[in-house]
Amino acid sequence: MGETLPGPDLARRIRELEARLADLEARLPAHSVPPAMWEELEELEEELTRLRRAARPAQEGERE
């Protein structure tokens, strides 16, 4: 997902990813985590990090 989302859509997408990540983490078994779950976890974390970085300049511009 390489597009840049406008402010409200970006914030909504971040909240959506945070919810998906929390749900996935709650479903992780204590042992023998399936590779597909690890992959999904990593993808969600990477996208969330990318979107949070994209949101930072927008938030800093609002303070000025």
Q: What are the defining features of this structure?
A:
single chain, 64 residues, mainly alpha, elongated, 0% strand
Describe the structure in brief.
The protein has helices at 7-27, 35-63. The chain is mostly helical and 64 residues long.
Mind sketching the topology for me?
Elements: H1 7-27, H2 35-63
Helix pairs in contact: 1-2
End-to-end CA span: 29 Å
- Rg is 14 Å
Low-confidence stretches: none
Helical/strand content category:
mainly alpha
What would you call the shape? elongated
Helical amount:
over 70%
Q: Residue-averaged pLDDT, rounded?
A: 86
Specify the number of helices: 2
- The tally of beta strands, per DSSP, is 0
Strand-residue proportion = under 5%
Reading the helices and strands in chain order gives HH
Assembly classification: single chain
Tally of structural domains: 1
Task: Give structural notes.
- This protein is mainly alpha-helical.
- It has one domain (7-63).
- It has helices at residues 7-27, 35-63.
- The longest helix is centred in the C-terminal third of the chain and has 29 residues, at 35-63.
- It is elongated and about 40 Å long.
- The mean pLDDT is 86.
